[in-house]
Amino acid sequence: MDPSGTPEQAMAQVADLDIGAAITRAATAAHTAAERERQALQQLAELHTAYPEWDINRRRDYTGEWWVAELLCTVTEQMALLGVIRVVRQRDGAALAMALSGQRALMQRSRA
C-alpha cells in the first residue's frame, strides 16, 4: 500500500488484497475437492475390482455421503443366520472395504 495515497486509495488496495486472498482460497479449495474426488473414484474402482460380488456406489442423502454396496446374489437363510446382509452402508471407502471383507468371510463360512 502506498502511504502517500488518499484514504479511498488505501481502502481500495485493502479490498484488492481481500479479493485476491479470497480467490486464492477458493482456488485452493477447488483443487483440494478435485483431488479428493479423484482419490474417491480410484478407491471406488479398486473396491469394484476387489469385491465383484457387490454393486458398489457412492450416494448422497440429507445426512451426507455414503458408500453403499449391494450384494448381487440372494442372501440365503444360512447366510443371514451367519450375519450376511444384502446392503452395506459406510461413511467412507476404507470403512466399506473393512465391512465387505467381513461380509466376504461370513459368506465363505456359509459355503463351508
Number of helices: 3
Please count the beta strands (DSSP E, at least 2 residues each): 3
Shape designation: rod-shaped
β content, as a range?
A: 15-25%
The first-to-last residue Cα distance is 77 Å
Task: Name the quaternary structure.
Answer: single chain
Major sheet: order of its strands? 1-2-3
The ordered string of helix (H) and strand (E) elements is: HEEHEH
Which structural class do the helices and strands define?
alpha+beta
- Average pLDDT, rounded to a whole number, is 87
What is the CA-based Rg, rounded?
Answer: 25 Å
- Number of domain modules: 2
Poorly predicted regions are none
| Share of helical residues | 55-70%
- Profile the largest sheet: 3 strands, antiparallel
Features:
single chain, 112 residues, alpha+beta, three-stranded antiparallel sheet, 62% helix
How would you characterize this protein structure?
The protein is an alpha+beta fold. It folds into 2 domains: 1-39; 51-112, no CATH class. The chain is built from 3 helices and 3 strands.
Task: Please summarize what this structure is.
The chain is α+β, with helices and mostly antiparallel strands and 112 residues long.
Record the SSE blueprint.
Blueprint: H1 7-50, E1 54-61, E2 64-71, H2 77-82, E3 87-90, H3 93-111
Antiparallel strand pairs: 1-2, 2-3
